[in-house]
Structure formats: C-alpha cells, structure tokens
C-alpha cells in the first residue's frame, strides 16, 4: 500500500499516458518538488534518505553491548568513528593536517611518491604489480587492474578469480570520443588542484623534473595532471567497450598456474599481483581455483605500454600514487579546493557534488558490478548533524553492503508480508509470460521450449539473501562479515 501511495503521489492523473507517459508518471512530482540548491532530486533520493535515516537512528539508540550480532557491532563501531570524524572542524589546520598525514602514510607504505621527492619503494616494473595487489587488498582500489571472485563460468561448483580491466574515473566514451574534450580538461584541472592541495598541506615541493619547462608549481601540477589524463585515455582506448563485455564466452581465458599466466607477458607480473592480493607466499601457486583473464587484448596492450619503456618506474609510481589520492582523499574526509575560484567548470558543479567518484562506487558490487546511484543527501538533510550521519551510512553501504541491508530488513516488522507480495507478483508475471508464448504466433513452436525452460528454472531471490537466516541466529551473516572486525572501537587507538 505504501508503494502504491508513493506512485500515486507522483503521478499526474490528468495526463493521458498514451500521449505523454512521462507527464502521467512524474508530472505531479515535478510540479510540487522544490529543486532550489540541488542539481537533481528523485523519489529514489527521498527513499534512500529515509532508509539511511532509519539506520542512523537505530544505531544511535544502541550501545555496542546491546547488539547481539557481530555484524551490527562492526557497523556501530564504524559509524561512531565516522560521525566523530565528520564533526571535526575541517577548517582547523591541525585537523586538516592529520587527515592529509593519514592519507599520505597509507600511500607511502606501499608506493612512495617521487613527484614530491618521496622515493618509490618498488624496484622494478614487476614489483609495481605487487604494490597494485597489496593496495587493492587493503583499499579496494586499482587504476590499472581490478578483480572479483565469483563462480567459475565453466564449473559452477567452484569459484574463480577474475582479473579485469579497471573501472575508469569517467565514462569510457569521454576518453575515446573527441566531443568530450571539455570533460577531460575539467578532469585534468581537478587533478591539478589535488596535487597543489597535497603539496600545500604536506609542505612538500613538487619535483620539476617531471614537468620540463614548467616555471611554477601550478604549471608543473597542470602538466603532470594532463599526463595522467593522457595515460588514462590510453588505457581506456585499449579497454573493451560495454557491448563487448556481454559475451562471457569471449572473456574466459583460464589459468591454473601463476607461472603459466606470467609467461604470456613480457613485463606484466599478474602472478605478483595475485600473490599480493591474496597474501600468498612469494613463490606460492594456485591449486584450488583458477585465475581467469577476462579481457586478454587489454592486458596485451597494457604489457606493450610497460614493455615500450616510454614511462620510467618513477612515472608508474607517480601514476598509482595520484590515483590513490583521487580515489581516497574523499574517504579520508578531505575536501579539495579549486585553484580557479571562478572557473566555469566549478560553477557548474553543485557545492555538495564530489569531484572524484571513489573506486568502490565506480567498481560496483559483485560479478555483475552492480552500482548504486549516488544521491545528494547533504541538500536533503535537515541539519548538518543529519548530513554527517546519513553520509556515514552511505559510506558503510558502499563498503559493507550486507551489513546495513541486514539491519534494515531485520528491523522491518512487515518484511515477510512484503516478501510474500513480491513473490506472488513475480510468479504471476512468469505465469503470464508462459501463457503468452503459447497464445501468439510470434515465436516458432520448436523454439518455445527454451524460454519456457528458462522461466521454469529461473533462480528466484526475493528481497534478501538466504544467509541472513531467520534474524535470530546470526552465525551465517557474522561469518560473511567476519573480516570487518578490523574496525576499531572508538577509543581503541
């Protein structure tokens, strides 16, 4: 009933859906919604805001000791830390310095930053892949490679590790089509601002050997930023386009040995990458699963880039370091000021819109890379305190999707009724689909059995996964989220 009321509240029933379905479906919502100070707003935003607010209120009402599942205890610890950090005065130089220092220490632990005279700790190009694996394991990020684990497409009883091309900061078309040059120009300017902010807050000078001919730090940062965008563009042009990614048969190049995997490349060391990603010993090999290279031609092109020696080891280190800043400065609570206060590109961006979309949101969740559409919670919040709380819930959903989801469903008294209604509706749709197959002559008769078989054997997952259990026994959900025990309790550090 609530969903039906929601739909009716947005519809303009005076419009004829056959003439203008959009006006019929959304006309009333558009007419009654105030967009002042917001770039966009939709029923999705309002619903997600309410869900986040309900979760924030629930955890605010609980002490860690009150919570029975470890999954909820981990969430409570994270939210307390996140809200405490969000309430710090970001304009305080000491607070800002601490945030930048934390970010820099995590960066330098795996890489170094030659652009700022912090020596790189990797000794050769193959060792760079060790850094990539280590950083993806610890920070879920990688500008050159990304991975996920899912069932082996050729043997569903086992899992496989799939190595893929990366999710880029911008839509692939922006890199490869000339009409989007303004997007790349704005992107380069944002990277420049990031480098200048890092320099100022860490009190580090930019090494001008990476920007020959530049007279000022600003010019040098701009030149380096343009080089980063150019490198991104080269990778994007080597990557597979969306339609090409739909054929899983073409994306199945399996390996049962890491040494055999590396023999296919001159400079890439995907073996080092996998070992660091999975914290394996230096010479260890895989035995219980396969490694599958999903886009072989992309990795051949990447190998060619490394083998050409067009970039030095320091260049690669800088490239990874800059992307680390792009991906995680926002996660550390750092806002990047613009060096062009009145620039048109910044005038077009709402104050609450982030400059860089983090890796975790670009990448999406699971094998299907399911993404959540970001919503403008800051503009919708009734107070700054609510904006901080809602933002922390949103971050938690990104990194621990089966935590907040579990808690939200557990606390819905009507969850079983809603599930039953959706199940009935879905079964009715499938049944009607099967009827239509036999009623009409639009499909040849010998072909009817295939869609009928698909409809009959369709895997049905309604509303929440089975490992949520009965919401009384938390063994399965806690086992799934066991690695989140690394989240400190407030005051533990």
Short structural description:
The chain has helices at 2-10, 21-32, 43-60, 70-86, 93-110, 125-139, 172-176, 181-202, 217-238, 258-262, 270-277, 296-307, 313-328, 344-347, 359-363, 377-380, 384-399, 404-410, 415-439, 449-456, 475-480, and strands at 146-152, 155-164, 253-255, 290-293.
Query: What is the CATH superfamily classification of the domain at 93-334?
Result: Neutral endopeptidase , domain2
Average residue pLDDT:
85
Query: Which bin fits the share of residues in helices?
Result: 40-55%
SSE-based structural type: mainly alpha
Radius of gyration: 25 Å
- Biggest pleated-sheet summary: 4 strands, mixed
Helical segment tally?
A: 21
| Terminal-residue CA separation | 48 Å
Strand fraction equals: under 5%
Q: Which CATH architecture of the domain at 93-334 is right?
A: Orthogonal Bundle
CATH topology grouping of the domain at 93-334: Neutral endopeptidase, domain 2
What is the CATH C-level name of the domain at 93-334?
A: Mainly Alpha
Which sequence of SSEs, written as H and E, runs from N to C? HHHHHHEEHHHEHHEHHHHHHHHHH
The dominant shape is globular
Give the strand order, joined by hyphens, for the main sheet. Answer: 1-2-4-3
Poorly predicted tracts of residues:
341-353
Q: In total, how many beta strands? A: 4
Pfam families: Peptidase_M13_N
InterPro entries: MetalloPept_cat_dom_sf, Peptidase_M13, Peptidase_M13_dom_2, Peptidase_M13_N
GO molecular function, one term: metalloendopeptidase activity
Protein name: Peptidase M13 N-terminal domain-containing protein
């Amino acid at each position: 009933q609530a969903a039906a009321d929601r739909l009716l509240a947005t519809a303009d029933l005076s419009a004829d859906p056959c003439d203008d379905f959009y006006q019929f479906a959304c006309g009333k919502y558009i007419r009654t919604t105030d967009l002042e100070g917001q770039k966009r707003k939709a029923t999705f935003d309002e619903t997600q805001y309410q869900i986040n607010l309900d979760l924030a209120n629930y955890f605010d009402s609980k002490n860690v000791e009150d919570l029975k599942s470890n999954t909820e205890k981990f969430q409570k610890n994270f939210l307390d830390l996140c809200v405490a950090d969000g309430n710090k005065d970001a304009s305080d130089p000491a607070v800002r310095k601490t945030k930048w220092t934390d970010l820099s220490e995590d960066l330098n632990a795996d890489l170094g930053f030659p652009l700022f005279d912090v020596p790189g700790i990797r000794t050769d190009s193959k060792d760079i892949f060790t850094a990539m694996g280590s950083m993806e394991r610890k920070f879920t990020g990688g500008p050159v490679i990304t991975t996920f684990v899912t069932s082996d497409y050729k043997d569903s009883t086992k899992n496989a590790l799939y190595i893929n091309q990366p999710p880029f900061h911008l839509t692939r078309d922006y890199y490869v089509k000339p009409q989007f040059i303004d997007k790349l120009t704005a992107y380069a300017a944002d990277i420049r601002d990031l480098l200048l902010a890092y320099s100022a807050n860490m009190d580090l000078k930019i090494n001008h050997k990476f920007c020959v001919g530049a007279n000022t730090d600003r010019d040098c940062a701009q030149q380096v930023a343009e080089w980063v965008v150019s490198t991104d563009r080269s990778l994007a042009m080597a990557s597979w386009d969306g339609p090409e990614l739909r054929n899983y048969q073409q994306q199945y190049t399996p390996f049962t040995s890491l040494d055999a995997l590396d023999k296919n490349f001159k400079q890439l060391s995907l073996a080092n990458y996998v070992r660091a990603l999975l914290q394996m010993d230096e010479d260890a090999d895989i035995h219980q699963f396969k490694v599958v290279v999903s886009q072989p031609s992309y990795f051949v092109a990447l190998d060619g880039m490394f083998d050409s020696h067009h970039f030095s080891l320091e260049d690669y280190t800088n490239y990874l370091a800059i992307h680390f800043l792009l991906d995680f400065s926002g996660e550390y609570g750092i806002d990047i000021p613009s060096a062009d206060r009145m620039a048109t590109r910044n005038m077009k961006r709402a104050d609450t819109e982030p400059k860089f979309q983090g890796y975790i949101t670009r990448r999406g969740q699971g094998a299907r890379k399911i993404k959540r559409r970001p919503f403008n919670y800051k503009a919708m919040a009734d107070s700054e305190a609510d904006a901080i709380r809602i933002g922390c819930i949103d971050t938690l959903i990104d990194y621990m999707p089966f935590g907040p989801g579990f808690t939200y469903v557990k606390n819905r008294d009507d969850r079983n009724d809603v599930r039953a209604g959706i199940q009935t509706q879905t079964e009715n749709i499938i049944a009607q689909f099967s009827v239509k197959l036999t009623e009409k002559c639009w499909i040849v008769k010998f072909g009817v059995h295939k869609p009928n078989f698909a409809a009959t054997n369709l895997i049905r997952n309604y509303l929440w996964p089975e490992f949520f259990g009965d919401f009384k026994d938390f063994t399965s959900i806690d086992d799934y989220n066991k690695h989140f025990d690394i989240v400190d309790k407030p005051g533990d550090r």
